[in-house]
Amino acid sequence: MPSSDLRRTIDSLYRSESGRILATLVRLLGGNLELAEEAMHEAFAAALETWAETGVPNKPRPWLLSTGRFKAVDVMRRRGRSGAAHADLVIALEARADDEPRAEEEMEDDRLRLVFTCCHPALPPEAQVALTLREVCGLKTEEIAQAFLVTTATLAQRIVRAKAVIRAQALPYQVPASQDLPARLGAVLHVVYLVFNAGYSGDATAAALSLEAIRLDRLLLDLLPEPEVMGLLGLMLLQESRRAARRTPEGELILLDHQDRSLWNREQIAEGIALTESALRSRRFGAYTLQAAIAAVHAESSSAASTDWHQIVLLYDRLLGIQPSPVVELNRAVAVAMHEGPEHGLRLVDDLLARDELASYHLAHAARADLCRRLGRLAEARASYEKALSLARQEPERRFLSRRLGELK
């Protein structure tokens, strides 16, 4: 296999398997996250060297896990760690070197433990999310920084500090007791949704992240059938149902209004709506369930023109009541524009931009550009599209904005 192909294969394996391998190594190493991470990285480095000679094994995950065990022993010996605990750990790892990996469901238990460790309340919320995306989902530090709109250095510092807290406080590698689960759930759901969005907004190779988030939420729902776990799963399924219609065969973005709705996945829509309705009936729902309800209105509409925009505005009003944010206000403004006319939406968007909270958010400027375009204010539309283009980072969005800019006459 050419080295470039092998590198791509290993990069793909890292994305899909590193979370499982790391989680199991953490368990095998008694909760030592940093040692497990170092051993895992050395295992992937060894794969790059060994597989160039032997080829990629039929089952790469067991190979990587077994190699990670050996690398952990090497690291401990290299650093001259002593004491009975480390000696016992080395003996245990060597004794199990030829063991087959545990059953799939048991490895998923390891991942669930790692999720709750990374989302421990001793860590700041932003560190919980960053660490989980890095360790559980295998996202690169640069990718996470982009999601948070912070520099890579800032994001890396959050992760380093979080690991230091885990080590200093010996945070337990376990799923919380039942009485503690509800309080711990919010950060975990936030992580799951960020993982989903990273896959949903990325290119085709990132699509697996969305499915990973859906899978993680199903695990949580089995563990804790709370309305918001249910609502988040409904939301993700409803959004994922539109994936096949979101891009042209060439990878260009297609906005919701122009999507071929016959391409929407009706099975995912049906499950998403059922989950959302169940969460709403509980009357203990939150922001994810309300977002799912908004997505359900879109999913049940045969076209953009037949969409119940009044209902969507009302749902955004409720969402603002429990989760006030400028992004939610922006989405509501777009819904108002569809319901009452672009001039009404533009006033709301301009008010938001005047508050300077969304000055660096390219979608706010893109929304303003579109409303100005619809109103025939082409000079303003051009300026807003140019501003959005200067802020957009993902190439498909940049191409879309460039195309819209070129269409202005």
Detailed description of the structure:
The chain is mainly alpha-helical. Among the domains are: 1-98; 324-409, Tetratricopeptide repeat domain (Serine Threonine Protein Phosphatase 5, Tetratricopeptide repeat), CATH 1.25.40. It is built from 19 helices and no strands. The chain has helices spanning 3-28, 33-54, 60-78, 84-95, 104-118, 125-135, 141-148, 152-169, 181-200, 207-223, 227-240, 266-282, 287-299, 309-322, 326-340, 342-354, 362-374, 378-391, 395-407. Helix 10 runs antiparallel to helix 11 (227-240), helix 11 packs antiparallel against helix 12 (266-282) and helix 14 runs antiparallel to helix 15. The longest helix has 26 residues, at 3-28. It is globular and about 70 Å long. The model has no long low-confidence stretch (mean pLDDT 87).
Topology:
Blueprint: H1 3-28, H2 33-54, H3 60-78, H4 84-95, H5 104-118, H6 125-135, H7 141-148, H8 152-169, H9 181-200, H10 207-223, H11 227-240, H12 266-282, H13 287-299, H14 309-322, H15 326-340, H16 342-354, H17 362-374, H18 378-391, H19 395-407
Gross morphology is globular
N-to-C order of helices and strands: HHHHHHHHHHHHHHHHHHH
* Class computed from helices, strands and strand pairing: mainly alpha
Mean pLDDT across residues: 87
Using DSSP, what is the number of strands? 0
Biggest sheet statistics: none
- Give the N-to-C terminal Cα separation: 51 Å
What is the rounded Rg?
24 Å
Helix content: over 70%
Unreliable sequence segments: none
Number of continuous helical runs: 19
β-sheet strand percentage: under 5%
